[in-house]
Amino acid sequence: VGRDWDGTGARRPVKPIMVREELCSGCRACQVACVAHHDRRFSTATARIRVTKIEPLGLDQPHVCRLCRPAPCIDACPSEALYRDPVTGAILLDAAQCTGCAACGDACPYGMAAIHPATGLAIICDLCGGDPACVKRCATGAITWASLAQAVAADLQADDLANRSGPGRAE
Question: What would the DSSP string read from start to end of 28-83?
Answer without folding.
Answer: -HHHHHHHHHHHSS--STT-SSEEEEEGGGTEEEEE-----SS-HHHHH-TT--EE
